[in-house]
Specification:
Layout: H1 28-31, E1 36-37, E2 41-45, H2 50-58, H3 61-64, H4 74-89, E3 93-100, E4 108-114, E5 121-128, H5 137-153, E6 157-163, H6 167-175, E7 179-190, E8 193-203, H7 204-214
Parallel strand pairs: 5-6
Antiparallel strand pairs: 1-2, 2-3, 3-4, 4-5, 6-8, 7-8
Length: 219
């Protein structure tokens, strides 16, 4: 999906019981981010050494075609990892490195940021190196992450954006049960051009229903 966090990168899941949407997000994930896995991919907290592989994977022409600009250099990715860890400790943000089974380096990342103080409403994004497109890494990472977002953080409404021209991202969002809500005119500035974006959302109850159908695909 299209949005990159400050000051850098990111592409565009059964669930634990969902708490009331008005309550404050639980503190457990703020003290320790878990490692999530399904046999195909592992999501783990980002560490400083991920900067090198993320810089290589997320700055190619294919990946950056329809997303806001990633950090321009290795140092920018290092600062992003530092920033994301600080935002996580403050309870406003969480990000995971995407590591396929058999690899020991990150090939992408997935993130969520709060849109209100209680983390009831949030926005997410996922970016994946193009060599791993169409390999099953994206749906596995998305399912694991959405389980975490709805089940552990307790998000009620999750939003995502994708450029109208980004057929891959829009198709992936539709497959995991996201609902297209509207058109954001010229909302993305990328590679010297303004693009229209589609706004997608997933509600906690949507995910409970969708994950029951999608779970057998994980292996």
């Amino acid at each position: 999906m299209d949005r990159m966090p400050h000051p850098a990168a990111v592409e565009v899941p059964a669930v634990a019981p969902i708490a009331d949407a008005t309550r404050t997000a639980p503190a457990c994930w703020r003290s320790t981010l878990p490692e999530l896995g399904d046999g195909r991919v592992t999501l783990r907290p980002m560490v400083a050494r991920d900067a090198t592989s993320l810089f290589a994977m997320l700055t190619t022409e294919e990946v950056t075609r329809f997303i806001s600009p990633p950090p321009p250099d290795l140092g920018g990715f290092e600062r992003f990892i530092e920033w994301s860890n600080a935002e996580w400790k403050a309870g406003r943000f969480a990000a995971f490195a995407i590591v396929p089974t058999g690899y020991d380096v990150s090939v992408g990342l997935v993130q969520v940021r709060q849109l209100d103080p209680g983390f009831s409403n949030a926005e997410w994004g996922i970016a994946l190196g193009s060599p791993f497109w169409g390999t099953g890494v994206f749906p596995s990472a998305a399912r694991l992450f959405l389980d975490f977002v709805f089940g552990e953080i307790g998000v009620h409404r999750l939003e995502g954006r994708a450029a109208v021209q980004n057929g891959r991202a829009n198709g992936a969002l539709r497959k995991i049960g996201a609902v297209q809500e509207g058109l954001l005119r010229r909302a993305l500035f990328c590679n010297g051009r303004h693009f229209d974006q589609l706004l997608w959302s997933i509600l906690a109850e949507d995910w409970r229903e969708a994950s029951a159908t999608l779970r057998p695909m994980v292996h």
